[in-house]
Amino acid sequence: MPDAEAKPAGTSELGEAKSPPPHRLLPRLARDPHQTLIDLGNQAGGALLRLDLGLFRPYLVTHPAHVQHIMRDNVGNYTRDGNSMLWRSVRRAAGDGILSEGPGWVTSRRIMQPLFTPKRIDPLIEEMASAVSDAVDELDEAARTGQPIDIAAELSRIVCHAVTRVFFADKISVPDALRLVSAQDTLVTSAKSRFLVPFMPDFVPMPGDRAFRDALHTIDELLLPVVREARRRPSDSDDVVATLGRARTEDGHELDEQRMRDDVVAMFAVTTETTYAVLTWLWPILDQHPEIADRLYDEIETVVGAAPVDRSHLPELRYTRMVLDELLRMFPPGWLLPRRVMAADVLGGVPLKPGATVILSPYVTQRMAAFWDRPEVFDPERFAPDQPKRAHRYSYYPFGGGPHQCIGAHLFSLEAQIIVATLLSRFRFRLRAPGIPVPKVAASLRVRDRVEMTLLPVKRPAAA
Ligand code: HEM
């Protein structure tokens, strides 16, 4: 693997970041933003780049050492400012809580983080596996009749079954959860123009605004009653809503309705959206790599077989975990993580002014030839336990890092193993249109078009 440390993290001399000419950059970004950013990252080899998008001129940060500086070493200087790219839309949807910055974030992180530690999550494995299994049962009919399914829709249904039961104590019904997921989908997609033109004031109408507002309205309609009920009848349950209901701010006050609503909205989104988004990429990848698929099937057959997935299986699903780690390398849902520069700083020899935007991208760094061998090849062996340690912690950061590091990484790992093992212990699949899907231009990394497939029940010799 290329040695990230050996690449210059910057130079001791100060200088402006290179900036690709806008007349070439803009058409390329409009055509294929994902590949263009990877190409730019590769051309710059880890140096900071300035993207000249007219009135908006953010820096693209790809070197792991620079990522570490922003996410960890000098984190106080790089904020998820609620007026900046991406975070402005996030703030409109999820307010000043866990997905924000400052005192509201401190309180929410203190309240939410303990719910997702391995100690709290591991005892929930059986319940999660049983919810997943119940949801997967509903695919038997499609497998029997050969009816094609939209795997993203099915995965979101499976995830909603698990999440509503385990983390929301069935306070949100599965049909409501699916309406929420669909509204979230609209938020992520309709925020695109505000994302790309973050300096436009709110009073100037932009495409997608109406859809965004309608989706927020749906979310409030579904979640506010849940919040109000929890406030009316506090309980000692340890689901997300009841936990927020009992929580206190740093100065001892209970959270008001708006603050509770903000964190319920945020927590529902992060527990659903990311997991199904990343697992949707798995099937086209397996279809393209039959040798990887066979090894995965063999492991699941040996470890799980025809039995329901249970806690004892998970430590044995080593190859499954390697496949998931590689999936997160190539398709991290949080593909762009912008920050606002607070005070002047120097990064990689480039002076940064207060107010500038820096864009970090796990998607780009994790596909750069400077930091990965054959970055465009899907190869789970990179994550084999006997592989040498990666040269730099931040050459792979699908879950971010530093104080804002994802609190759901352990949950994702368990939940994704359970879902993949449950599905593949029962079905094989055939894609209707083979090929790796094109990513959608949206705030998170999703497939642009449906991934449709037919399911084939796994045949096993009848027991003697
Ligand atoms: C594939 C699965 C997931 C990926 C790749 C992922 C990725 C990320 C990333 C990159 C961040 C950092 C954002 C930033 O630095 O601005 C983050 C934050 C967060 N994630 Fe995840 N996430 C995943 C699943 C989950 C799940 C299942 C949960 C459920 C608890 C979750 C909860 C959160 C929360 C609450 C934050 C905000 C943390 C903070 O700012 O203090 N995530 N996630």
UniProtKB/TrEMBL annotation:
InterPro entries per record: Cyt_P450 (IPR001128), Cyt_P450_CS (IPR017972), Cyt_P450_E_grp-I (IPR002401), Cyt_P450_sf (IPR036396), Cytochrome_P450_Monoox (IPR050196)
Keywords: Heme, Iron, Metal-binding, Monooxygenase, Oxidoreductase
Superkingdom, natural source: Bacteria
Record region (Disordered): 1-28
Keyword Heme: yes
Family affiliation: Belongs to the cytochrome P450 family.
Protein name: Cytochrome P450
Species of origin: Micromonospora sonneratiae
